[in-house]
Amino acid sequence: xSTENISELTGLVRKRxxxxxxxxxxxxxxxxVNPSEVSTHILQIKEERLRETFKKYEELNLEVCAxxxxxxxxxxxxxxxENAEKQQVQQTTIPKATHMVTVPAGTTSMKSSTPACVLxxxxxxxxxxxxxxxxSAADRLKLITDKKLCKICLNSHTKKCRFFFKCDICKEKHxxxxxxxxxxxxxxxxxxxSNKQTLLPTARVKIIASNGTEYHVKALLDSGSQVSFITKxxxxxxxxxxxxxxxxxxxxxxxxxxxxxxxNVKLHxxxxxFTISTTCYLLDSIASKLPQKRFxxxxxxxxxxxxxxxxxxxxxxxxxxxxxADIFFxxxxxxxxxxxxxxxxxxxxxxxxSAVPVLRTQFGDVIAGSLPATQGAHQVTSLFCKTCDNxxxxxxxxxxxxxxxxxxxxxxxxxxxACEKIFRDTVKLDTQNNKFEVTLPLKLPLESIxxxxxNSFHLALKRFNNLEQRFQKDASVHQxxxxxxxxxxxxxxxxxxxxxxxxxxxxxxxxxPHHPVIRLDKKTTKCRVVFxxxxxxxxxVSLNDLLLNGPVVQNELLDILLLFRVDEYIFITDIxxxxxxxxxxxxxxxxxxxxxxxxxSDNIQCIQLNTVSYGLKSSSFxxxxxxxxxxxxxxxxxxxxxxxxxxxxxxDDALVSQxxxxxxxxxKQQLCSLLEIGGFKLHKWFSNCPELLSEVPKSQxxxxxxxxxxxxxxxxxxxxxxxxxxxxxxxxxxxxxxxxPATKREILSYIxxxxxxxxxxxxxxxTAKVIMQRLWQAQIAWxxxxxxxxxxxxEDFYKSLRKMSPIHLPRYVNLNNARTIELIGFADxxxxxxxxxxxxxxxxxxxxxxxxxxxxxxxxxxxxxxSMTVPRLELNAAVLLAKLISRVHSMxxxxxxxxxxxxxxxxxxxxxxxxxxxNTLNAYVANRVKVILQLAQSxxxxxxxxxxxxxxxxxxxxxxxxxxxxxxWWSGPKAIHSSEYIFxxxxxxxxxxxxxxxxxxxxxxxDDSNLCLDFLDKFSDITKMKRILAYVLRFIQNARSRSHRxxxxxxxxxxxxxSLLLIVKGEQQKYLQDTIRDLKACKTTKGNLKQxxxxxxxxxxxxxxxxxxxxxxxxxxxxxxVLPRESRITxxxxxxxxxxxLHAGQRLVLSAINQKFWIxxxxxxxxxxxxxxxxxxxxxxxxxxxxxxxxxHDRVNVSRPFQKIGLDFAGPIMIKQSRxxxxxxxxxxxxxxxxxxxxxxxxxxxxxLRTATFLACFKRFISxxxxxxxxYSDNASTFKCASSQLTELYKLQNCKTHQKEVHDFSSQQGxxxxxxxxxxxxxxxxxxxxxxxxxFHLKRVVQKSLLTYEEMNTVLCQIEAILNSRxxxxxxxxxxxxxxxxxxxxxxxxxLNTYPEQDVQDLRNKLQFWKVCTQIRNSxxxxxxxxxxxxxxxxxxxxxxxPNINVDSLVIxxxxxxxxxxxxxxxxxxxxxxxxxxxxxxxxxxxxxxxHRRSITKVCPLPIE
Length: 1505
Fold this sequence. Notes:
Layout: H1 10-13, H2 16-32, H3 40-67, H4 73-92, H5 130-134, H6 137-146, E1 198-199, E2 202-208, E3 214-221, E4 228-231, H7 232-238, E5 243-250, E6 256-269, E7 275-283, E8 300-301, E9 321-323, H8 325-331, H9 339-346, E10 354-355, E11 358-361, E12 364-367, E13 369-370, H10 391-403, H11 414-426, E14 428-430, E15 435-438, H12 449-453, H13 457-473, H14 475-490, E16 494-497, E17 514-518, E18 527-531, H15 557-564, E19 569-575, E20 582-584, E21 593-596, E22 605-609, H16 619-633, H17 639-647, E23 649-650, E24 653-658, H18 661-677, E25 682-687, H19 690-693, E26 706-707, E27 719-723, E28 728-732, H20 744-752, H21 762-778, H22 788-802, E29 807-810, E30 818-829, E31 834-845, E32 850-861, H23 870-892, E33 900-905, H24 908-915, H25 923-936, E34 940-943, H26 951-956, H27 960-963, H28 967-971, H29 1022-1040, H30 1053-1071, H31 1073-1080, E35 1095-1096, E36 1102-1103, H32 1115-1118, E37 1121-1123, H33 1128-1140, H34 1146-1153, E38 1157-1159, H35 1162-1171, H36 1174-1179, E39 1204-1216, E40 1225-1235, E41 1241-1246, H37 1251-1265, E42 1270-1274, H38 1287-1294, ...
Parallel strand pairs: 3-9, 4-7, 8-10, 15-20, 30-33, 33-34, 37-38, 39-42, 42-43
Antiparallel strand pairs: 1-13, 2-3, 2-6, 4-9, 5-6, 6-7, 11-12, 14-15, 16-22, 17-18, 19-24, 19-25, 21-22, 23-24, 26-27, 27-28, 28-29, 30-31, 31-32, 35-36, 39-40, 40-41, 44-45, 46-47, 46-50, 47-48, 48-49
Helix pairs in contact: 2-3, 3-4, 10-20, 13-14, 16-17, 17-18, 20-21, 21-22, 23-25, 29-30, 33-34, 33-35, 34-35, 40-41
């Protein structure tokens, strides 16, 4: 390493850890180096220079960090290194003759202390001074100029600044802190809403993979990109090897991404003879599918004879390649005259047809540009810029929250308890000033919170600067915001403080960013400021992270609305600025600071918030808890107001109802008086009682409809309002002119804005939920167009929703002169849609008038992951009804006396389950029946038919426009409207009996004599068993003894050994009970343990007595623990030792086990376990065997030669095309035909492996040997694992086209083709033997010679003659007769290699001659039939009968050219027994799901059955 050239250290110094590591290595090398090899003086100089450079780097790095705390870490380090290098270079430019510089002792290179700030005189840099940062840019510049400071580093120096900063905004050479925006001329902006879609240019290109496979992919032509890109998915598919690089790529909005890989790709045109190579960088994804939305080509005028580069340019497709400007302008061709385009457009005079731009490229004609308005989408897709709508999550969360049933759980959470305790201990109520004072519920003490919280000033300042930029774009928002802040300060809710009083590095200080929430539709507060307590500081911690989250102390909106409906007279009011009426402890106000200034020319002020603020996690709890505290303290003095606060206030809205105007007036007076004690004021009054409003000023009255959703989302879809003019709830869908949502994101956002807390529109919401569920099930992209069937369903629903008329429901349920009040509930479920429940209030007055009102409903869609039966869905509906009715009943009881609660279900199975003892039901049903009985045990359950069940509307859904006139939904069954109606009594249903019963109560008894370790049975590893039991034993020990607790993070060997002995003890108690009983009774043991003289040790474990008492070995070696041979633990211990000893043999494993344990007949157990070891089995796997099957029918019956044949290929064989020198060499193949009856062989030479060539060979065979009736051939899968030379042969035999053409030819000729199982040469034994015999002669004759086609064909004919002359058996038993039966006898009457005999007789009668020939031929077949077949009777191998392989058995597929450890695993899916019912062929399925047929000689059954 050379330190003279500092530039070599640039890459090293960029990372502090790397530099320190280099120094450490250098020091170690210096300590270990041999002085005789390297000069010590030189090493000292190098080390000192390296340390000096690193020290200078550290100093400059700290200064850079302080100058710009928001700068990227890599930029800081690079800048520090650059300055360190420049200073080092200046120091090294001393003349070479000078080797040493003398420095006076009194001088120092750096000051020992940090200079004081020129503004506040404190010991810190100016650019870190909070007072300086709060100044306006003009004041900062003025201060820098007056103090004659550097405009770059903001320090004082006389020489040129050593820093090279540029302003991030204007790129000028000055610090960003003193940047001033130049005045801009006013610009008039004009925006126009357009639905046109811009089509980006795409083309289909061909890319060839490394294995030769062609892939056609869609490429995007982008002239705005300097480089090209490719997806990683495509690179993996092509099998290309990318190169590692590190290249930053700058995209939209100056976003920088580092790319680490690139690859060279060759692109081919599909329409022209054009190829181009380029370098592409790898990305996970390039863009969304293009185009955004599928459009029709009917309205586009395309030129005639156009040659499109992308035939599917109108269909959304994945972009795999992006071609940048380096390729774009190389493939671009000169444009042709546009007359043809105008002609094409002119052919159709319709205005809906428009021309589109066409680009000519080497890849073909590319369509790009704007599409007609009817074709477009209302979305924009931008490359390298993907945004996510965060409000969608909140919208859906609010939707499902409104659909849920409020539940309060009795479990107490520690955080809730701690928050409640802090509030009770610290809350103060100043009755003189009418003010609450609370403290923030912090998780840490206030004085130590700064250590965890960190610095938030710089981030808050940055957020405020961004807010000012927004103000510059929208002056109206700025004015509203400024008015809000001024009002905040004027009312004393905020105080301007001097920021210099804070020591940000020590004091617990937090600065809150803030942003506006604009609601221009509001008449009062159009702009509300929300403070962000979730902003992370430099320590990645926010204020909300350090605050406790208090419990919910108010009722849910469902409860409040139910009470709101039961009385005739009501008033509605709102607590004005509720959060801001609660004062915060002055000590905690330092955690609530905001930054503000009215205009950018002013200095930034620090405003300390004095009250509870929006945006903090605990604010809602503190505000609502103060209301509840008022009610608790003054409930005796103001009982009506206390009841209202506890039951009728939702956040800051009070919805109060009373039975008379007098009570309503008293409630108003008490509520105002009680809230005034706490400093709360009420406004926005409304009432249906004029007397109450007469005392309220008009300015404090409310005249608009009241929205019941307490958030800042404006309802644009289905929602419920309260109409103050008609005193009714209004359910409506606004008639806006927005386009119909068409993508998954838009539809979910639209449905998520449904707000129906009471469930009045339950049947409509269910339909929307089903659409949501189907969208998720379709697994389409967020911005992708819906499939046609889903789009049609959504369009029907959307149109129906737009046609829906407003529905008014009376708020008051009319309880005047009520005699009987009943709650009626209904539950129902549908197998395909959903399940739900609804609740009605039935009121009978004194004159027997009946009024039925819908109170509420809830629904759930059926789950997708778990397929459920209809009875179980009905049971879930009953559970939902029990939860809802329990909630409704508990709330209405506060004001009403409910006479009866009747619940209905149309499932008699569910009603029988409810009646059945839960001890006899299975777990799923019993758990839900138990919930029903707990919540609704005192209620009446009865049956109702489906036609009269209003909950059927929930389970099936209703279109929105049909809801208004659906009487069954709004009023319930007609029967209950009669005062004389008597609800049917539940019939005597049979109790459901279930064998899988479980006890609802358990009785536990402790028995020290027997261990119960059944929970360990689910583990299959003895090590894991030991560790789990060891932790259990440690927990028991720590629970029993508080003084000696073991809290270490690891288990000791003693703990593991104790747990193992305890496991073994449990196994001994299970399997050796008699032996333990005999040993305890001091009796002699019986059985196999008698020879070992066993005894019980102090822990009650059986050990071997033996004869090694006097041996000097450990106790555990002398007296081993006895292991039961039948125990599963014994097998796991053997398996563990087998693996621990690297899959050792039987004796070695048994020897290792005997060091601690003793197994009776241990060698047999060890053999049994090792035999089942899969790894060992693979290395010595044995294939399945079966008795050799009988010969097939075609082998043992008389047929003419070559009527039944076997077919196989051999080769390749190299031949030359001609006899000239250096002639072209090509491959040839031999097609072998074997007669099944006579073993005669016919050889044909094939010049290649085309199907036409094979058929030509087959035709030649037929012409010379006759037409066969059956042909048996393998499917060449055996070639798959052979050498690469057989690849073409394998492709031919497995080619579907080849097999089809062969079948077509065979079927025309009346030939039956039979394909044998894969990897089964035993099924084509004759053909394989024929190939072997042919190769035997061919190798010896040809050797290394290279023959022509004619020469090779001649040799093969001679080999064929020789093979057909091979003896099958002697013709007679005469010892002097040397003639033998050969295949040639069946072909020509004698062997093909015999000489012709002389004709010694002149036969006059030719007919007699042919009779003699026929007699000779028949004599050959007679010999074949009587003698040759008997030779085939014996089985030379596979003589034993073995069990058949069963379906579902796991096997290993044997592959001849692969190592055993890589043989694939498979499962038997089907077996094919022969005529003797013996399985010799099986069908297997591998891990990739493919199925294959294999002979049993190629599968190895695993020993796990």
